Amino acid sequence: MTDTSAHAHASAPAAADGSSPSTPDAPWPVAVLSSKLKGYIDRLGTVWAEGEITQWGSSGGNVYGKLKDLSQDVTLSFTIWSSTRAKFSEEFTQGDRVIALLKPNFWPKGGTLTMQVYELRHVGLGDLLERLERLRRQLAEEGLFDAGRKAQLPFLPGCIGLITGKDSDAEKDVLRNAQLRWPEVRFRVRHAAVQGDRAAADVSAAIRELDADPEVEVIIVARGGGDFQNLLTFSDEVLVRTAAACVTPLVSAIGHEADRPLLDEVADLRASTPTDAAKRVVPDVADELARVQQARGRMAMRVTALVMAEIDRIGHIRSRPALADPAWLVDTRAEELTRWVARGAELIDHRMERAGLRIAELTGQLRALSPQRTLERGYAIPVRADGSVLRSAAAARAGESLLLTLADGRVGTTIDAVEPGAPGERDSGRG
Q: Which of 268, 280, 237, 273 is nearest to 145 (CA)?
């Protein structure tokens, strides 16, 4: 133990000036480490950096503040000595976007690192507008500004989500005007920073929260105007994309006509002011009742006119002779029917008479052609035993029995002799 202690005491002087590497047996004193850090940092020199001033405090003529990255959650402390500040020709405050000539400065006594500012300038308006325009073109090419993707606002939303600064005039304007127009309307108010380093993140989180609420039917993002730089929050890319992804209809009511932030472009409806947003989202109950009364009045007039027209029409129909004296129609038709009955009887009698004459004529013709009349004139029909008619003397055979059909009966006979003759002779013989 004595040897170890002696070795430690012997090694300490060698490491105290930092000329030797630090080891567990020979560590550097804190002062040596701080001195080395300061020497290393002092050699880094100056650098230009861009960011947003999120803290600006003055003490004894010196300024102590913080500079935040524009896109990431990274912050550096800075110091502006009074001698340097006296050279500035511009005024600066929290929320300003600036470029600064910085030099890292390590304070050994406190072990803190800060940035010493040698020059400080506002970011040129032209630079900001150029960046904003590039982002605008990019979002437009992605279709986030297309009219076809904008949702229709509900006619009468039961619950409205409102995102605005706490106790702001914009909040009061929206609530007062909406409730004056429709007292039963309900609001879900979410307070958020509307300027500064937290504004874009706060507003984006509020939009996501209200969009997830099933009762909220429309969302209003309201701010009572402001200068160009303060409105840059509402052109933040993350905020704009959050608004574009919102399913619930979203109304942008930033209240600045000259400089339109990108939130106005992706919103489903842009209102010129918070008051205008309340009027466009909530219908006026008095106006709507007046429209209902007007519609009812027009309907009553149309129905009354239709009923009166039908009453007049029925009156005209009832004044016609057929309905004024119904018996007239029966009597008129009865006389006409009597004439038609008499005419029909006359035509039937005529037709019957003509038919009788025709029947008599046909009867005479039929009787004249009848075989019975031939038999009555003295002719007979010889029928053989097999039922066939003997039609020729050449076909007759002597001794053949025949049945003669006469006009009033039949007699049997036998052929004694056959005497064929010429047709003329037979005819003359009959004669």
A: 268
Q: What is the distance between the alpha carbons of residues 94 and 317, in angstroms, rounded to a whole number? A: 89
CA distances for 242 relative to 160, 171, 220, 235, 312, angstroms:
18, 22, 14, 11, 66
Three-state secondary structure call for residue 365:
helix
pLDDT digits (tens, 9 = 90+) for 277-286: 999 999 888 8
State the pLDDT confidence band at 9, using cuts at 50, 70 and 90.
very low
Residue 193: is its pLDDT beyond 50? yes
| pTM assigned to the model | 0.47
Conformation bin of residue 207: beta by default, left when phi > 0, alpha when psi is -120 to 50: alpha
Q: DSSP for 174-194, please give it.
A: HHHHHHHH-TT-EEEEEE---
Q: Can you name the residues that pair with 426 across neighbouring β-strands?
A: none
Pairing of strands 401-405, 410-414: antiparallel
User: Domains in the chain, start-ordered, CATH in brackets?
Assistant: 2-124 (2.40.50.140), 129-283 (3.40.50.261), 373-430 (no CATH)
pLDDT of residue 206: 94
